[in-house]
Amino acid sequence: MTQSIFKIAVLPGDGIGPEVVTPCLEVLNAAGAKTGGFALECQDLPAGAHEYLRSGNALPGTTLDGCRAADAILLGAMGWPEVRYPDGTEIAPQLDLRTELGLFAGIRPARLIPGISPVLADPRAEALDFVIIRESIEGLFALRDEGKVVDDREARDTMVITREVCEPLFDFSFDYTRKRKARGGKGILTCVDKANVFASMAFFRKLFDERHALNSDIEVNHAYVDATALNLVRRPWDFDVMVTENMFGDILSDLAAALVGGMGFAPSADIGKDHAVFQPCHGSAPDIAGKGMANPTATFLSGAMMLEWLGDKHNNQAAIKAGQLVRNAVDAAFKNGIRPYEVGGKDGTAAITAAVLAALETAEAAAA
Description:
Layout: E1 4-13, H1 17-35, E2 38-44, H2 49-55, H3 61-69, E3 72-77, H4 93-101, E4 105-111, E5 129-135, E6 148-150, E7 154-156, H5 163-182, E8 188-193, H6 199-212, E9 219-224, H7 225-234, E10 241-244, H8 246-259, E11 267-271, E12 276-280, H9 297-314, H10 317-335, H11 349-362
Parallel strand pairs: 1-2, 1-3, 3-12, 5-10, 8-9, 8-10
Antiparallel strand pairs: 4-5, 4-11, 6-7, 11-12
């Protein structure tokens, strides 16, 4: 079998970032050894709040160059509450990466892992499995470095919605929903907006409807963001895939993470035409950094998404199968009783990693 070499830019970042990235690479390599057909060539690159303190640059040019040259980017966590730019905002080079690399589609899956008790007291919550696709480079974040404070009496930020970004975002969302339907999803894409109030959101919906005309095989719904927040608590099992503006997606994806156990269970990907970043949704968690308490599950699942994306992009079935093996091993570890601190357990990073590696060891490698 010919082996593909995938170059991975690794940005461990701050706080628990390095603590979850290191075992994630161990898990991904173990899954790759099961399937064969590919190998990961990793390069650690500096970025984040502590890099800003060291060099004055949270995302050095050499790091950005390394990300551009990589086949994929794996990121741990960025930021530290006490480290801020002169305007008071936190260090967030992950947002710069999205803009620099044109990563317009933020994928935020919300799936309840077997063995984790659902937050909602309804048997249907045990099978929660939906996805939020967050537009990731414009919306209310588009001019985040250009907000204005006028005479210390008012502040202004600007919402930007463009056809240039929304058309590929919606095409990606329809294709994602189509592929998900082939794997058992509902095949329903919901456009979440506030089109009843804002012209920018009415335009967002208009562009969505235009792209739906070219993807009429997919069933669609429209929903306002406030009603969506309500229904994610009342009836989250009704949703399949949602696509929404940047800030709305930021908020709704955190709500979704709460439904499946917390941020330690929430993976993500930010995908563009040529590049992609994979990272857990959680932050650098200064309160538990260095204590061995971090839950690496979201990072493992983000790594699984990375392998599947690489496999799909490069037609490498071994990488796709390895991603599936990682997800299956995570499920098996939790079915067997592993429990991180955030859900009342006493299993830290090392114990969770060992349980997932043990599940991988006994798993049958799918044929590549």
